[in-house]
Amino acid sequence: MRRLVIAWAALVGAALANLALAFLPIGDAHMVMALAIALAMTTVMALVCMRLLTAPPLAMLFAIGGIAWFLVLLTLGGADYRTRPTFLQEQTGTARSDR
Q1: Count H helices, E strands: the chain?
Q2: Please, is 17 exposed, middle or buried when counting C-beta atoms within 10 Å of its C-beta (0-12, 13-18, 19+)?
Q3: What is the pLDDT of residues 28-66, one digit of tens each?
Q4: Cα–Cα dist 79/10, whole Å
Q5: Is the Cβ–Cβ distance between 9 and 2 less than 8 Å?
Q6: CA distance 37 to 15
């Protein structure tokens, strides 16, 4: 029970850090720091709540496989977003300026 309370406190602290981060004017570093906080929260959930350190090897394999597929989805989604043509948006006058 003590381990879960410590994990809960760590997650609440990380959420508060993320909230405080939202109000800091740090530019592009904001995304990197927010992702680092999210990674820390995910690690706490996986190690404490899912008990992956003491889980059977098959459970660890499935957890790693899930992360791998998530990365594949992010990569393909990003590739789709980046390779879409902009000529239709330019004709309507709604082209995005970030390309």
Answers
A1: 4, 0
A2: middle
A3: 899 899 999 999 999 999 999 889 889 999 999 999 999
A4: 35
A5: no
A6: 8
Q: Please, which residues have CB within 8 angstroms of residue 30's CB and are 6 or more apart in sequence? A: 21, 22, 24
How does DSSP classify residue 1? -
**CB-CB contact of 16 with 3 (8 Å):** no
Q: Which helix (H) or strand (E) holds 31?
A: helix 29-44
Q: Which of 74, 99, 78 is nearest to 87 (CA)?
A: 99
In whole angstroms, what is the distance from residue 64 CA to residue 36 CA?
Answer: 19
Q: Which amino acid is residue 60, in one-letter code?
A: M
